[in-house]
Specification:
Keywords: Hydrolase. This is Protein ABHD8. Residues 122-131 have a biased composition (Basic residues). 29% of the residues lie in helices and 21% in strands. It is an alpha/beta fold and 396 residues long. It has an eight-stranded mixed sheet with strand order 1-2-9-8-10-11-12-13, sandwiched between helices. The longest helix has 15 residues, at 202-216. The protein is globular.
Length: 396
C-alpha cells in the first residue's frame, strides 16, 4: 500500500504514467503464445492452440448433413419509434411480409381537436415509425465437434483481465480437439500498451479484435466473451454474420448502447487511481466473486486479472462509447446465443441478461447459482459443460 502511494506521488510530481505495460521477454511462441502486430507498434499476445488431427477419413472437416438438417428460417420485423419504443415481430416462415403498422397511441384528455371541439374519448392518433428493419435469412446451425477442422473458438476477456482467465476453458476444449484462440486486449496481459488514451476506445479495441478474427477465422467460428468482451463478440457477429456460427455471452449485461459514466471513480487522474489500486483490487474481489477467500485471491493472481496499469484502466473505462450497440443493433442478430450468468454477480444484474434474452432472436439463458462475475474461474467445470453442450447443440 505504501509503495503504491509513493509511486502515485512520483507520478503526479514527474508527470509520468505509472505501470507502463509491455510484452514480456520471457514469453515465447514455444509456450503456445504468439504475438500479432495488428498495427505498426500495436502488438497483441495471443494463445493459439491447434490440435494435431490425423489426416484420415474418420476426421472429415465436416460431417455430411441430412437434407436441410439444422436449417432455421429467421424472419422478424423490428420497428423503432421516435420515443425509443421498440416493436419486434417474429414472422413465421410462410407469413407474408406486410408493411409495418403505424403505432396507435391515445390522445391526452382535454386536448382540443383541430376544429376546436374536444377530442372524442377513445380516439387514437397514429405515429409513423422512425426506422424499420427486416431480418429475413436462413441460418444453418450445426453441431461443432472437436474433430471438425473448420471450427475455431475465440475467447475475449473484459476490462482488467487477460487471456489467462480462460485457462480452464482453453485446456478443456484443446483436449477435446478444438482449435482455440484467445487474445490479450491492448494494455492487458502481455500485449503492448500504447501511451495515448485514444488507443483504448471501443472502436480501437474492436478493430484489434477484427484483425485477430480475420487472421484465424475459418468456416464456423464460435465467439465466447466475458463482461466487456461480450460487446466485441456482438460487434464481430454483426459484421460477419456468415462466419460467426454461435456466440456465448458470459455476464455481459443488457443490450444497451455503451456510454462512459461522467461520475465514475475511473475519471480520476491515473496517479490517483494508482494510489487507490489496492482498494480497487479489494473491491473487485468483493464484487467479482461469490466468496472472498484464499482460493479466490489465488485465482485472481493466476488469471492475471485486474493487473493493468492505472492509465490503461482509466482509458479503457472512459473509452466505452458505442452508441450503435443499442437494442435495435442486438435485435438484428440472427446468430444463436448462449447467455451465462452468475447469480451473485454484483456488476451485472440478472435483469440485464434477461432483457438480452428477450431482445435476441435465438437465445438461451443459463444461471449458475454458485457463481458471480468471474464465474469461469469460480465454477470452471459447470461453465465448460454448458459451453460444450451449446457448441454441440443442433436443432432438429
Amino acid at each position: 500500500m505504501l509503495t503504491s502511494i509513493t509511486d502515485g506521488l512520483l507520478c503526479c510530481l514527474l508527470g509520468k504514467t505509472p505501470n507502463a505495460v509491455g510484452p514480456l521477454d520471457t514469453v515465447d511462441s514455444a509456450d503456445g503464445f504468439t504475438f500479432l502486430e495488428v498495427k505498426p507498434g500495436r502488438i497483441l499476445r495471443i494463445r493459439h492452440d491447434v490440435p494435431n488431427r490425423p489426416q484420415f477419413p474418420q476426421f472429415p472437416s465436416e460431417e455430411p448433413p441430412a437434407a436441410r438438417r439444422g436449417a432455421v428460417r429467421c424472419r422478424r420485423r423490428i420497428t423503432l419509434y421516435r420515443n425509443g419504443q421498440l416493436l419486434i415481430e417474429n414472422l413465421g416462415s410462410d407469413a407474408p411480409n406486410p408493411e409495418p403498422n403505424e403505432l396507435e397511441t391515445p390522445d391526452p384528455s382535454g386536448i382540443p381537436a383541430k376544429d376546436g371541439a374536444a377530442a372524442p374519448p377513445g380516439k387514437r392518433r397514429k405515429r409513423k415509425p422512425k426506422k424499420v428493419v427486416t431480418v429475413d435469412c436462413e441460418k444453418r446451425i450445426t453441431s461443432c465437434k472437436g474433430a471438425h477442422g473448420d471450427v475455431v473458438l475465440f475467447f475475449i476477456h473484459g476490462v482488467g483481465g487477460s487471456l489467462d482467465i480462460w485457462k480452464e476453458q482453453l485446456e478443456f476444449f484443446s483436449k477435446l480437439g478444438y482449435e482455440v484462440v484467445a487474445p490479450d486486449l491492448a494494455g492487458h496481459g502481455c500485449s503492448s500498451a500504447p501511451p495515448v488514451a485514444a488507443a483504448y476506445t471501443f472502436y480501437a479495441l474492436a478493430e484489434d479484435m477484427r484483425a485477430v478474427f480475420k487472421r484465424y477465422a475459418k468456416k464456423r467460428n464460435i465467439l465466447v466473451g466475458h463482461s466487456y468482451g461480450v460487446s466485441f463478440c456482438t460487434f464481430l457477429a454483426h459484421e460477419y454474420p456468415e462466419l460467426v456460427h454461435k456466440v456465448i455471452m458470459i455476464n455481459g449485461g443488457g443490450p444497451t448502447a455503451l456510454e462512459p459514466s461522467l461520475c465514475s471513480i475511473f475519471n480520476l487522474p491515473p496517479c490517483v487511481l494508482h494510489c487507490l489500486s489496492p482498494c480497487l483490487a479489494w473491491s473487485f474481489l468483493k464484487a467479482g466473486f461469490a466468496r472472498q477467500g484464499a482460493k479466490e485471491k489465488q485465482l485472481l493472481r493466476e488469471g492475471n486479472a485486474f493487473n493493468v496499469s492505472s492509465f490503461v484502466l482509466r482509458a479503457t473505462m472512459s473509452g466505452q462509447y458505442w452508441p450503435e450497440g443499442d437494442e435495435l443493433y442486438h435485435a438484428e442478430l440472427a446468430v444463436p446465443v448462449l447467455l451465462v450468468h452468475g447469480m451473485h454477480d454484483k456488476f451485472v444484474p440478472i435483469e440485464e441478461d434477461q432483457r438480452m434474452a428477450e431482445i435476441l432472436l435465438i437465445a438461451f439463458l443459463k444461471v449458475i447459482d454458485e457463481g458471480s462475475h468471474m464465474v469461469m474461474l469460480e465454477c470452471p467445470d459447470t461453465v465448460n459443460t454448458l459451453l460444450h453442450e451449446f457448441v454441440l447443440w443442433e436443432p432438429d
